[in-house]
Write a structure and sequence with these properties.
Layout: E1 2-6, E2 9-12, E3 17-24, E4 30-38, E5 45-51, E6 56-58, E7 66-71, E8 76-81, E9 90-98, E10 106-107, E11 111-116
Parallel strand pairs: 2-11
Antiparallel strand pairs: 1-3, 3-8, 4-5, 4-9, 5-6, 7-8, 9-10, 9-11
């Protein structure tokens, strides 16, 4: 599975961004898709995830402002981020779990999100 993220950039606090992730390869094996993020000097955290059937997970810091979605026909994953804060600044990575796996098996290269205060 290959994953390519896009949509990152520089935005002012309070603004919005939409991240996209295009999946290719053995896409039939993908069950869960997620967005991880890692800020400088901090541990990587799972910001949001979505199952094939649409069940979602959000980190507490993201739940009220972010929305994750996926298009299983186009093999795309999205993350709509609203009311962005400086603390959302991080590298955002698309990652997927294949069927039967208990860990994220494939990762994209990441897209940088920088929120200026």
């Amino acid at each position: 599975v290959q994953l390519v993220e896009s949509g990152g950039g520089l935005v002012q606090a309070g603004g919005s961004l939409r991240l996209s992730c295009a999946a290719s390869g053995s896409i039939f094996s993908i069950e869960v898709m997620g967005w991880y993020r890692q800020a400088p000097g901090k541990e990587r955290e799972l910001a949001a995830a979505i199952s094939y059937w649409g069940r979602t997970y959000y980190a507490d810091s993201c739940r009220e402002r972010f929305s994750i979605s996926r298009d299983n026909v186009k093999n795309m994953l999205y993350l709509q981020m609203n009311r962005l804060k400086a603390e959302d600044t991080a590298m955002y990575y698309c990652a997927v779990k294949v069927k039967g796996s208990n860990k994220y098996d494939f990762w994209g290269q990441g897209t940088q999100v920088t929120v200026s205060s």
